């Protein structure tokens, strides 16, 4: 399946594939992850709904942002597939609202907007991934499997790690500065956890993309840059808001290579 916007916003959609042609060789986990599709285009929405259901997911389709917010508030979802060009509101506002209420929800933006500023805005609004139309069902399913696999892999018990005045509890997924919680987004937390595990070591961009996203990542490493900027900003804001002097670990950029967490 290739999903394209119809009408004035882009090329006309290709003929609807049959259900058999939309089924891939690798199906989703049998737990049937709930997926909320937010898409106003009838052709794309129907293709996504049919393709996801045929591959083991449990999709629900909303055609407006307001309907999606209502649905997300009353039903626990695992994934939000979000178009940005909705008829009643901007998809970025939907992403921000849903992220604020559901910090662990996987949000994937599906859009025809291709400018760098749009990608950055989408990720900064809380999205975990950004897929540009037209895209194939195979790539979308691979992205979903990669993200969801990262969320369910069991890790051995780990003691909280102290990084100067910062404490990272991987098991509880809590980051605190002098016992005050810092509200990190899921990928920001994962990124900090990887750097903490390699504290004092140079960690390449490729390693970070493989460990935080997936070894089969299809997208640009721009996602890493946006997530890193968000992590640094939230840590700095927490330090500024502290009523006591604080000492934070420093995340140094290693030009042409990656990053290093320094205590």
From TrEMBL:
<feature type="domain" description="OmpR/PhoB-type">
    <location>
        <begin position="158"/>
        <end position="263"/>
    </location>
</feature>
<feature type="modified residue" description="4-aspartylphosphate">
    <location>
        <position position="83"/>
    </location>
</feature>
<feature type="DNA-binding region" description="OmpR/PhoB-type">
    <location>
        <begin position="158"/>
        <end position="263"/>
    </location>
</feature>
<dbReference type="InterPro" id="IPR011006">
    <property type="entry name" value="CheY-like_superfamily"/>
</dbReference>
<dbReference type="InterPro" id="IPR039420">
    <property type="entry name" value="WalR-like"/>
</dbReference>
<feature type="region of interest" description="Disordered">
    <location>
        <begin position="1"/>
        <end position="31"/>
    </location>
</feature>
<keyword id="KW-0597">Phosphoprotein</keyword>
<dbReference type="Pfam" id="PF00072">
    <property type="entry name" value="Response_reg"/>
</dbReference>
<dbReference type="InterPro" id="IPR001867">
    <property type="entry name" value="OmpR/PhoB-type_DNA-bd"/>
</dbReference>
<dbReference type="Pfam" id="PF00486">
    <property type="entry name" value="Trans_reg_C"/>
</dbReference>
<protein>
    <submittedName>
        <fullName>DNA-binding response regulator</fullName>
    </submittedName>
</protein>
<keyword id="KW-0902">Two-component regulatory system</keyword>
<dbReference type="InterPro" id="IPR001789">
    <property type="entry name" value="Sig_transdc_resp-reg_receiver"/>
</dbReference>
<dbReference type="InterPro" id="IPR036388">
    <property type="entry name" value="WH-like_DNA-bd_sf"/>
</dbReference>
<dbReference type="GO" id="GO:0003677">
    <property type="term" value="F:DNA binding"/>
</dbReference>
<feature type="domain" description="Response regulatory">
    <location>
        <begin position="34"/>
        <end position="148"/>
    </location>
</feature>
<keyword id="KW-0238">DNA-binding</keyword>
């Amino acid at each position: 399946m290739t999903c394209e916007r119809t009408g004035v916003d882009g090329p006309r959609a290709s003929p609807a594939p049959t259900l058999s042609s939309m089924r891939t060789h690798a199906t989703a986990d049998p737990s049937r992850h709930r997926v909320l599709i937010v898409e106003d285009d009838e052709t794309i929405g129907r293709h996504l709904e049919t393709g996801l259901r045929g591959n083991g997911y449990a999709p629900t389709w909303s055609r407006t942002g307001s309907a999606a917010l209502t649905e997300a508030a009353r039903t626990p979802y695992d994934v939000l597939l979000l178009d940005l060009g909705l008829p009643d509101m901007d998809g970025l506002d939907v992403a921000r609202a849903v992220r604020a209420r559901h910090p662990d929800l996987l949000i994937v933006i599906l859009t025809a907007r291709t400018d760098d500023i749009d990608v950055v805005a989408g990720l900064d609004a809380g999205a975990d991934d950004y897929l540009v139309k037209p895209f194939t069902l195979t790539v979308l399913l691979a992205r979903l499997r990669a993200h969801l696999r990262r969320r369910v892999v069991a890790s051995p018990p780990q003691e909280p790690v102290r990084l100067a005045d910062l404490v990272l509890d991987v098991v509880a997924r809590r980051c605190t500065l002098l016992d005050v919680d810092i509200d990190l987004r899921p990928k920001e937390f994962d990124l900090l956890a990887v750097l903490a595990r390699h504290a004092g070591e140079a960690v390449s961009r490729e390693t970070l993309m493989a460990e935080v996203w997936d070894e089969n990542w299809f997208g640009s490493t721009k996602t890493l840059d946006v997530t890193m900027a968000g992590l640094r900003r939230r840590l700095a804001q927490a330090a500024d808001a502290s009523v006591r002097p604080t000492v934070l670990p420093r995340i140094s950029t290693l030009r042409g290579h990656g990053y290093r967490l320094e205590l």
